[in-house]
């Protein structure tokens, strides 16, 4: 340790000793602070990851359903009155549900409107109804209340992910004047003045944003030449024109503003109907009906309200008409929020609201079962051999170096091994838990061997020597005495290895476990997928609702990992022995 | 069929174990000590004699049987339909669906005869296999049964067998490496017969899509890995720039400053971070970090790609913090206390001791910790697959999209592949380079650690 000499050259200067000591202590504190900062940053990152996933995932555990009153019509479900299951399963449940929904909105008459109304429902909306009736044929012909699943867009809207809502209760008396199809609404209070100001503020904001954007583009334009500059200039011109029109619209504080689909939507709920504002002035709004009010009487203060959907209609997947229907259903108490059991009971689907993780969970279970059955005996066997029987020679050394290096080989390389060996050479089935389990077993075996060796080594030699002393053979001493005592350590290592296998994704992508599989796998040779791969697949999909599903699946995965690690820690605490 | 075979195997094994044990006890009679081995070892000996021949016959016989069955089934068919692998497997599928009774459409007479030939050959061979297996097992067992006696050293034979089995277990690790090497090397050699290795190693363009038609756009079939190397390097450098200081400072604090209480809180945090599946971190990188970086970049007037190297690198850096810190923690703890005491005795403060004594002494170990972390970052797949791009840009700008080895391997091999195209083979060549690189890195790192440990032991 020749370096020690260097500690001596702490600078000795003319400054008072105190100052130097202070400086050195400052350096000391700074250094310690760096350490704390590093740990705090790491902890912060971990909590941000977990909280981010938690907040994204929690909404996916609940879903919005309609509780619809329907009549299980004999003519549509079982016209021949056979009462058998196959016929009942093939019945036209969708029509019943759609008719029941349409009955709630007498306004809906045109085909386009009906299609929009049906768009609120999931494509699997009738599944629960079908299951109820086919399991209990005596329900045919009766009046029932069935849960009906909403589409993912409607669900997202109700969960508040599509737009913010502002509700203003009316303070004045509202009068309606019908002029052809157009409604003119006037309030005796200053309700519309407030709404008008909000819209104006929104327009000002947009104008501001336009101006900054124009300034930014013009800055980039300086010194630019050619086609790119040309197209950018075009962009600037469009923005400028837009800013011009915007300016004109808000130049006067009292002129009416046209409400287009790039502005927040104002919906006035009055007398059980909803009017969508197309033009607003401080005095009142003009608009069209989305749902016809039940009466044209003036509405008293507090009985009517203005609902503002802040996100402009053109940026929303749920349009104003559908939003109005959903609001009305919510107001009538038909919509309820419940726990999404479907998430745990169904397989994958292209429809976010129908997709579940059951298939992936079962696939994971099969895969891990194969992994455990293979790698536990093999790993423990190898550990016993290397720790107890291996002669000190070249071969043993090669095996040991090998195991240490295998533990650090990138997991995707194991995927290549699986693809080339198990799939192409041995012709095993693609996407099957069998192959996945094989690959993962090879992947985690080094972990288990290393942990098992440590566990075997920690058993004191006196135990083995005592056994040998009373006449046990070498193997009897190991299998009857050393191995049982090393078991808790081996189990802990195995659980940690399995937790590692549970989170592994990359090698399973290689062997085809990424296929879109709806069915629940029934065995180790069925095509299936596993939880982490399902997470990867969902994270790639464009629907916003799948983002929540992905996060929810991650939460399930993390819970499993947490349980496994907790079990390992418990085991260690419970059985760990200090000799 | 297979199930029945192994069921009978299990049944025979158990029954002959009991027979052997019973036989040994009855020979010993009232004086158990007259036997050399315990009765159960005699039982185990017979059980092994049953198992081994039956398993051997199955391993040898099953593939032979399958080949025979296929030959019989194909004998009546038009040679043209079964000229290649694809046709043969299609016909086999047809035959199986005919036998299962769910063939779509009506089967041609040829197919029906082939199916019946198939099923009769299958039943004949399965019976043959079963009979041969049982006969061999029984012969071996009868032979073993006659050996049972007071003098017979059953335990020694069984223990020798067990030892071989244990050796075989540890040989699996070697076989895995051999398997990996074989599976990548063969395809890589094939790849190099299509693409010049010089072009592969030094080419500046990566675009593995080979043109099927001459005039196809964007399918140059260029296989130069330089853009992949720079991409991987860029992301790894970012990751190490994050994980290096954070991991090292965390390790120093944990080893030198932290009280046992603090350690007991911080250690689990690092372990949890190490245990988070990379697919989760990939999700976080792609959906939270990347948009955040893009947003904040744009607010200060930078154009950031939505799949920037920075996002992937940052999250990957966070991922490898636990590796750096736990390995560095180990090596710092392994520095002998006497060095610290010597430094304190000279009047050095703690941080001066760490900077001028402990870190220089632990340097080899820390270097190897960094090497292991680098190899982990280079081989990491999910974070880059989800957060980094596919475009092979030759750039060192961390705000642009780059691609890495692992991303390309995954992209090429997921989905359908034809196994002789240069594109598919290139993935194996990439895998080979990746495997070789990480292997060398690990090997050197482990050797350094080993030598370092020996120095202070």
From TrEMBL, chain A:
It comes from Phyllobacterium trifolii. The chain crosses the membrane at residues 33-55, 360-386, 406-426, 438-456, 476-496, 551-571. Pfam families: BPD_transp_1, DUF3333. Residues 361-567 form the ABC transmembrane type-1 domain. This is Phosphate transport system permease protein PstA. InterPro entries: DUF3333, MetI-like, MetI-like_sf, Phosphate_PstA. It is a multi-pass membrane protein. The lineage of its organism: Bacteria, Pseudomonadati, Pseudomonadota, Alphaproteobacteria, Hyphomicrobiales. GO terms for cellular component: plasma membrane.
């Amino acid at each position: 340790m020749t370096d020690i000499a260097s500690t001596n050259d702490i600078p000795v200067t003319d400054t008072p000793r105190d100052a130097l000591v202070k400086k050195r202590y400052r350096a000391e504190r700074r250094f310690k602070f760096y350490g704390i900062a590093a740990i705090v940053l790491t902890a912060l990152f971990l909590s941000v990851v977990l909280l981010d996933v938690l907040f994204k995932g929690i909404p996916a555990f609940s879903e919005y359903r309609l509780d619809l009153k329907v009549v299980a019509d004999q003519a549509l479900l079982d016209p021949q009155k056979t009462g058998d299951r196959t016929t009942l399963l093939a019945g036209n449940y969708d029509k019943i549900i759609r008719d029941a929904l349409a009955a709630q909105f007498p306004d809906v008459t045109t085909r386009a409107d009906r299609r929009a109304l049906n768009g609120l429902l999931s494509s699997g909306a009738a599944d629960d109804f079908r299951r109820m009736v086919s399991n209990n044929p005596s329900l045919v012909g009766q009046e029932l209340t069935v849960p009906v699943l909403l589409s993912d867009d409607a669900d997202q809207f109700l969960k508040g992910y599509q737009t913010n809502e502002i509700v203003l209760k009316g303070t004045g008396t509202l009068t309606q004047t019908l002029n052809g199809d157009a409604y003119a609404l006037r309030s005796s209070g200053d309700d519309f003045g407030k709404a008008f100001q909000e819209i104006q503020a929104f327009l000002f904001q947009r104008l501001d944003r336009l101006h900054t954007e124009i300034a930014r583009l013009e800055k980039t334009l300086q010194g630019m030449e050619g086609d790119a500059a040309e197209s950018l200039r075009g962009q600037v011109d469009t923005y400028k024109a837009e800013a011009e029109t915007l300016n004109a619209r808000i130049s006067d504080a009292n002129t009416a503003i046209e409400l287009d689909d790039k502005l927040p939507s104002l919906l006035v709920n009055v007398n059980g109907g909803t009017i969508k504002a197309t033009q607003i002035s401080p005095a009142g709004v003009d608009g069209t009906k989305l749902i016809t009010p039940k009466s044209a009487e003036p509405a008293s203060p507090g009985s009517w309200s203005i609902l503002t959907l802040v996100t402009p209609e053109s940026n929303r997947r749920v349009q104003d008409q559908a939003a109005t229907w959903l609001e009305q259903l919510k107001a009538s108490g038909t919509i309820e929020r419940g726990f999404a059991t479907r998430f745990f009971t169904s397989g994958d689907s292209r429809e976010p609201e129908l997709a579940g993780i059951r298939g992936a969970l079962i696939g994971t279970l099969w895969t891990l079962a194969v992994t455990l059955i293979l790698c536990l005996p093999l790993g423990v066997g190898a550990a016993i051999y290397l720790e107890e029987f291996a002669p000190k020679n070249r071969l043993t050394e090669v095996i040991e170096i090998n195991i240490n290096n295998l533990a650090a080989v990138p997991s995707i390389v194991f995927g290549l091994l699986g693809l080339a060996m198990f799939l192409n050479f041995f012709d095993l089935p693609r996407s099957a838990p069998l192959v996945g389990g094989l690959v993962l077993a090879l992947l985690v075996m080094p972990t288990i061997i290393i942990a098992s060796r440590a566990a075997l080594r920690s058993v004191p030699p006196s135990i083995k020597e005592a056994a040998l002393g009373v006449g046990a053979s070498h193997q009897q001493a190991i299998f009857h005495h050393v191995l049982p005592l090393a078991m808790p350590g081996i189990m802990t290592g195995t659980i940690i290895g399995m937790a590692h296998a549970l989170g592994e994704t990359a090698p399973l992508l290689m062997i085809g476990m990424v296929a879109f599989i709806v069915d629940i796998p029934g065995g180790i040779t069925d095509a299936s997928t596993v939880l982490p791969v399902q997470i990867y697949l969902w994270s790639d999909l464009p629907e916003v609702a799948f983002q929540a599903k992905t996060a929810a699946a991650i939460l399930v995965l993390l819970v499993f990992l947490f349980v496994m690690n907790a079990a390992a820690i418990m085991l260690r605490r419970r059985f760990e022995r200090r000799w | 069929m297979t199930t029945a075979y192994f069921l009978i195997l299990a049944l025979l094994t158990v029954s002959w174990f009991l027979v052997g044990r019973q036989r040994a006890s009855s020979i010993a009679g009232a004086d158990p000590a007259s036997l050399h081995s315990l009765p159960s070892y005699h039982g185990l000996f017979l059980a092994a004699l049953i198992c081994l021949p039956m398993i051997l016959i199955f391993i040898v016989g099953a593939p032979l049987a399958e080949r025979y069955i296929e030959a019989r089934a194909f004998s009546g068919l038009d040679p043209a339909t079964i000229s290649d692998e694809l046709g043969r497997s299609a016909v086999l599928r047809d035959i199986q669906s005919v036998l299962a009774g769910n063939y779509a459409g009506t089967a041609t007479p040829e197919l029906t005869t082939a199916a019946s030939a198939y099923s009769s050959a299958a039943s004949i061979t399965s019976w043959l296999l079963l009979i041969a297996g049982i006969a061999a097992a029984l012969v071996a067992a009868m032979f073993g049964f006659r050996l049972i006696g007071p003098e017979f050293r059953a335990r020694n034979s069984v223990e020798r067998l067990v030892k071989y089995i244990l050796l075989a277990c540890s040989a699996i690790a070697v076989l895995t490496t051999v398997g990996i090497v074989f599976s990548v090397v063969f395809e890589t050699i094939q790849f190099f017969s299509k693409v010049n290795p010089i072009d592969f190693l030094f080419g500046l363009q990566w675009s593995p899509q080979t043109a099927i038609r001459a005039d196809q756009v964007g399918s140059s079939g260029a296989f130069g890995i330089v853009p992949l190397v720079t991409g991987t390097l860029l992301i790894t450098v970012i990751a190490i720039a994050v994980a290096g200081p954070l991991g090292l400072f965390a390790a120093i604090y944990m080893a030198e400053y932290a009280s046992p209480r603090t350690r007991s809180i911080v250690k689990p945090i690092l372990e949890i971070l190490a245990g988070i599946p990379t697919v989760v971190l990939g999700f976080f990188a792609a959906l939270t970090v990347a948009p955040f970086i893009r947003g904040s970049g744009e607010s200060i007037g930078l154009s950031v790609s939505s799949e920037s190297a920075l996002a992937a690198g940052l999250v990957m850096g966070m991922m490898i913090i636990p590796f750096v810190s736990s390995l560095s923690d180990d090596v710092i703890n392994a520095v002998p206390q006497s060095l610290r005491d010597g430094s304190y005795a000279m009047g050095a403060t703690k941080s001066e001791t760490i900077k001028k004594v402990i870190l220089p002494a632990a340097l080899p170990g820390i270097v190897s910790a960094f090497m292991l972390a680098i190899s982990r970052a280079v081989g990491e797949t999910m974070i880059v697959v989800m957060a980094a791009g596919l475009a092979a840009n030759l750039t060192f700008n961390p705000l642009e999209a780059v691609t890495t080895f692992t991303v390309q391997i995954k992209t090429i091999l997921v989905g359908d592949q034809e196994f002789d195209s240069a594109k598919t083979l290139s993935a194996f060549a990439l895998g080979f380079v990746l495997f070789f690189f990480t292997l060398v890195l690990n090997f050197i790192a482990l050797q350094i650690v080993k030598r370092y440990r020996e120095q202070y032991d």
